[in-house]
Amino acid sequence: MKYLVTFAGPIGSSKSPIAHYLSHQFNLPIISNDVIRTEVIEDLTFPDEEEFRHRARTRCLDLLQSSQPFIFDASVDRQWPNIEAHIQQAPYQVFLISLDISYPFLEKIHAYKQYHDSAGRLRDNYQQHQDFLKQYSSLISVSINDDNFKDRLSISADALTQWLKEHR
Questions:
Q1: What structural domains does the chain harbor?
Q2: pLDDT for the residue 76
Q3: What is the DSSP letter of 151?
Q4: Three-class SS of residue 5?
């Protein structure tokens, strides 16, 4: 079965830890926007958003064409219509993990992680996630919130296991 695991959630809401855990548990490759962004900065010695988008798009399209299941470690909140078109063309099934934590909880996570550079975008990013939820809630496979956040890894793995059983 051709499928991908991806995320909806604000900056710093725990997408990467879940992605890496699922990669280990299910032996799935990861395309990570954070890693590609860092790679571009290291290669060019400055941030280049156009080069980042080119590399991320190329790698994602390559995997979609390979028919291999994979994890897209990024938030699809702001780009869903564009991403969905490529996914449907492949065609892939999507397992979407939504990180629906409260704004105060997200602020605490950012403080613990010392994410000072994204603090100015946090409110807008959080609101974009809320807007995504209003429009696309039917796509969500599993939701992580303040109450179950500590168990997010096992919840995500268990939900993916169940989803795979139902979709095979």
A1: 3-163 (3.40.50.300)
A2: 92
A3: G
A4: strand
